[in-house]
């Protein structure tokens, strides 16, 4: 089947829209959105970059115990809120991850197979897919709805659709967070992922006073590879991570490109256009 959309669309006909009000980013060697933009511009990692995120929303003891996936999700979520000048407690949130914390899932499976009575209660409660969303609502004191989404390589696209739908339903702004960590053990064979990656957006309603690039998105049929090329430096740097499909969007934001396509599952892609300031 050929694509149903062959020309870019703008304005109301482009489906769901938002203003990108704030951005957060973390990967090893690029611990901020400023560092990611510098890498896109000049190809250099940040000097003395930390090896692990240290989310300041959590108390020191919780910060040390939190899994890497939770740490990176909270780090980029707070950075996006600060970039937008938004109170984290005021925003509904959408957390999108292909696998959640697959290293903890591997630990759980191995321990249940060998010594089930020794399983760690702390690691058990961190194994659920909405662990990052739960830590966020506690750390930020957020009483607004929090959604956790998993759709394999389509996770970020589906999270973006959910966030845009919430804006269309009347929310002034929504926090969207994408993240994934490394796979370990036998699960690497069926759910491969390397490294640690997180990125976040605060998306505001187009009728608000928000400033930033305007994003428009709509679903389209996928006929082989997306017609709009997605190559970029961030995408090329993090190819082994399960969350890498989202990086086409962040490459576009960093480079000023205006079109991209994200895998959206079941023979569908999410086309995205930007109108940059």
UniProtKB/TrEMBL annotation:
Residues 44-63 are annotated as: Disordered. Residues 47-217 form the Beta-ketoacyl synthase-like N-terminal domain. InterPro entries: Ketoacyl_synth_N, Thiolase-like. It comes from the Bacteria. SUPFAM superfamilies: Thiolase-like. Gene3D superfamilies: 3.40.47.10. It holds the Pfam family Ketoacyl-synt_2. This is Beta-ketoacyl synthase chain length factor. It comes from Lysobacter firmicutimachus.
């Amino acid at each position: 089947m050929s694509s149903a959309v062959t020309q870019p669309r703008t304005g109301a006909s482009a489906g769901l829209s938002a203003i990108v009000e704030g951005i957060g980013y973390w990967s090893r060697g690029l611990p901020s959105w400023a560092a990611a933009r510098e890498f896109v511009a000049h190809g250099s990692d940040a000097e003395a970059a930390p090896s692990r995120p240290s989310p300041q929303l959590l108390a020191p003891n919780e910060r040390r115990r939190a899994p890497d996936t939770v740490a990176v999700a909270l780090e980029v979520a707070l950075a996006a809120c600060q970039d937008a000048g938004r109170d984290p407690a005021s925003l509904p949130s959408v957390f999108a991850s292909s696998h959640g914390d697959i290293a903890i899932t591997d630990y759980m499976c191995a321990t249940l197979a060998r010594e089930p009575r020794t399983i760690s209660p702390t690691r058990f409660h961190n194994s659920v897919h909405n662990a990052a969303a739960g830590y966020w609502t506690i750390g930020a004191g957020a009483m607004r709805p929090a959604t956790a989404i998993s759709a394999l390589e389509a996770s970020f696209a589906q999270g973006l659709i959910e966030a845009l739908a919430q804006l269309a339903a009347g929310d002034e702004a929504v926090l969207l967070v994408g993240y994934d960590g490394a796979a370990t053990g036998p699960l690497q064979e069926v759910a491969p992922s390397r490294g640690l990656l997180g990125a976040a957006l605060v998306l505001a309603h187009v009728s608000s006073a928000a400033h930033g690039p305007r994003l428009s998105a709509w679903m389209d049929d996928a006929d082989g590879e997306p017609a709009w090329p997605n190559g970029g430096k961030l995408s090329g740097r993090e190819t082994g991570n399960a969350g890498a499909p989202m990086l086409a969007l962040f490459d576009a934001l960093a480079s000023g490109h205006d079109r991209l396509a994200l895998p959206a599952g079941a023979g569908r892609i999410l086309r995205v256009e930007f109108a940059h300031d």
